[in-house]
Amino acid sequence: xxxxxxxxxxxxxxxxxxxxxxxxxxxxxxSCKAQGTVQRNEGEVARLISEGAAALERNDSSAAAKxxxxxxxxxxxNAAAHTYLGVLADRGGNLTEAQRHFEAAAAAEPSSASAxxxxxxxxxxxGLTKRAAEQFxxxxxxxxxxxxxxxxxxxxxxxxxxxxxxxxxxxxxxxAQTLAPDADVARALVxxxxxxxxxxxxxxxxSALQANSTNNSDAKSxxxxxxxxxxxxxxxxxxxxxxxxxxxxxxxxxxxxRLARVFIASKDLPAAGRTLEGAVARGLxxxxxxxxxxxxxxxxxxxxxxxxxxRLAIQRDTKSEVYRFQYGMLLINAMAPKAAVIRLTExxxxxxxxxxxxxxxxxxxxKAGNNPEAVKAFTHCLKLxxxxxxxxxxxxxANVEVGNYKEAIDAYERALTKNNKxxxxxxxxxxxxxxxxxxxxxxxxxxxxxxxxxxxxxxxARLALGKFYFRSGRLEMAQSxxxxxxxxxPELTGAYxxxxxxxxxxxxxxxxQATMATFKRMNESRRTQEREDVREVVRRLADVVx
Length: 546
Fold this sequence. Notes:
By secondary structure, the protein is mainly alpha-helical. It has a domain of 152 residues: Tetratricopeptide repeat domain (Serine Threonine Protein Phosphatase 5, Tetratricopeptide repeat). It has 29 helices and two strands. β1 and β2 form a beta hairpin. The chain starts with a strand and ends with a helix.
């Protein structure tokens, strides 16, 4: 058996060697003397093949080849001798010679399933995929219970890549797995299901893989499968694979980063931090590790640790434009926008044509209250990349800051022409339309509803929609939205105030009084919280786009 590896799946390229008794081809000779010669030849051929097989067992390839060649000199169409010589040629890397012998074996025994499979395997190695598939199909018509032929044909179907090819490959792998359970085939079934977007099947096949005690795959295979599971949202399964990969290869950067991302996606920031800090302690002090560690520190509220971690990432990769942008954003979020302006200006001197860095500079100036410079930076960003939706969104916010609602509306609409699935921009457009006044009620409602539809957990958008329903007299709808806002973000003070008004209008006095009392306790920070909530969401929008 020979094993080859392709991306995503470890494939098995199998030579199904089944040596049958020697077969004599040609017209029978009636002479008794000739018949005796034939019988002696049969015995001699059988002896040569048996001794050749024994030599092969001893790894004496040279002696084995001589014996099989002698057998062919006596019986030129002997399938067993051709098969063994094909195997030897395959092992020696002479695929042309291997193909010649396997073709001879298949011609000698056209009804032999193993001969067809062997020929298909060598044709596949030579890249003759169409002819290989024909041989595997012929082999399976003769005997559909061959794991080797099923796997080989499944490999070809998988390489086709279309949904139909993938479904065919999965069916073939399933048949092979039923006949001879194998960890590599189980992994192939998981990957194919992931590619087909069939998470339920992927999870089921993964459970079968875990149940296979012979799952001894290497670190790279487990890391790649873990990455695919992570991408499909199967976090528990991804954690198992990636934890195993890191254990097998503690200094494998990709495996470490993938495992940390699984923990981030699972909202287990302490585990993500331990994973990355452990890698650093082992000596894996690379720029990507420090950069992701900075992200973990920031998300866990330790911005004082995030900033030095990002500095270390930049020190290890001084040419990374992305890290310099992220460093600027960290300074902005650390309430140091003026420092961010300095660092981003330095970065722009290195990369003057980077839309990303000009966007960051605009955000830094916007946060620092320098609106004219922010507008200049966003405008220059769009000059460099006219399709850059986040820059339009921020340009709209800068215009709102100085009351230029018409320009803001135009900027938001331009952002949505570039990407109409940005819920936060729909929210900002709805708010700008309300502030602009005029007969915009229908457009306001459409955009706020779209924002909630695209980002159901976006509390600010739900708050704006609840307020809109209240002003338009739809009290029950307003109540529903506002109660949902408080569930999403109990710290959003404005939601209590608006819900208190709704309860009052609905004559629900006790609930109104309790809600307004909560509002009064939280009122001091209400304005700051709402403004920061919006800006934070738009900042994340920039991160997502990158």
